[in-house]
Amino acid sequence: MFTGYLQDTISIRDVNIAKPMKKNFYHGLLLGLLKVESSWRVKSDQESGAGYADILLKICKENIGCIFEIKYAEKGNFDTACSKAMKQIKDKAYITALRQDGIKIIHQYGMTCYKKTCSIVHEQYNI
Q1: Alpha-carbon distances, residue 57 vs 2, 9, 29, 54 (angstroms)
Q2: Checking DSSP bridges between strand 64-72 and strand 105-114, what pairing results, if any?
Q3: Contact of 40 with 58, CB cutoff 8 Å
Q4: 114: left (phi over 0), alpha (psi -120 to 50) or beta
Q5: Bridge partners, 125 (sequence order)
Q6: Each residue's pLDDT tens digit, 32-71
Q7: In 10 A of CB 3, how many CB atoms?
Q8: pTM (global) more than 0.85
Q9: Which residues share a beta bridge with 112?
Q10: What is the model's pLDDT at position 82?
Q11: How far is Cα 113 from Cα 70, in angstroms, rounded to an integer?
Q12: What ranges make up the beta strands (E) of 1-127?
């Protein structure tokens, strides 16, 4: 769905910026889209575990949490970027803040973008 959104809305000029800023562009887009659902609690660069998760989302009524780690897939290398994102989620224990809040179902997303395309790796944990 996110790839479809990117293809329908952005220009490749939008990501014709310095490499460190490319990730921030997609991060901001995703934050805006996730906040459309007003009952969700969405936090950017939230401290959790040994670092800062790009996006933590809580659906309190359903006791569900989501962790998003976003990477820019240099030269369209989605597999490598997705693996790095998921490794970072695990290595830095981003699950910590959600567990401390009593969240029982946690979705972890390694999300990578390149121009107008997105790839996502997902893992779910039930606590």
Answers
A1: 17, 24, 15, 10
A2: parallel
A3: yes
A4: beta
A5: 106
A6: 999 999 999 999 999 999 999 999 999 999 999 999 999 9
A7: 13
A8: yes
A9: 71, 119
A10: 97
A11: 8
A12: 41-48, 51-59, 64-72, 105-114, 117-126
